[in-house]
Design a protein that fits this description.
- The protein is mostly helical and about 130 residues long.
- About 65% of the residues lie in helices and about 5% in strands.
- The protein has one domain.
- The chain has a two-stranded antiparallel sheet with strand order 1-2.
- The longest helix has about 70 residues.
- The mean pLDDT is about 85.
């Protein structure tokens, strides 16, 4: 027994296939536009992160310089002063500067939109008749 689409069904099927192909092409175009926008946004974000990293390096350098100066001044003091309460407090203060740490911001991974893999071989685009 054979089944066949009527002429109206065949016409509707063809219209739907054309419409699906048109809409799929729009999706693919929008996907490309979206990927470019993502790439641009990631690039802009990465530039901001790089500026932060530069400021972070400057802050680290400042802390290192201050800590080195404080350590030199502390080391120049007498052993008796270093062992005093004031000396102990000063050593703790110097240690805080020496141990200063800053949180780095890592690189951002760029998300990739996956290619759409839509099979055109759906029932609607199948043979117009079945036997």
């Amino acid at each position: 027994m054979a089944f066949k689409l009527t002429k109206d069904e065949e016409k509707k099927r063809t219209e739907l296939i054309d419409r699906l192909r048109t809409e799929l092409a729009k999706i693919e175009d929008q996907q490309k536009i979206t990927q470019v926008a993502i790439d641009d946004a990631i690039g802009e974000f990465q530039a901001v992160v790089e500026k932060y990293q530069e400021a972070l390096e400057d802050a680290k350098g400042f802390c290192d310089d201050v800590a080195a100066r404080f350590r030199d001044e502390f080391d120049d003091k007498s052993d008796a002063w270093k062992e005093s309460d004031k000396g102990q407090e000063a050593e703790q203060f110097v240690s805080v500067w020496e141990d200063a740490s800053f949180e780095e911001v890592g690189d951002v991974e760029k998300p990739e939109l996956e290619e759409l893999e839509i099979e055109e071989d759906h029932a609607i685009s199948g043979a117009s008749s079945c036997s």
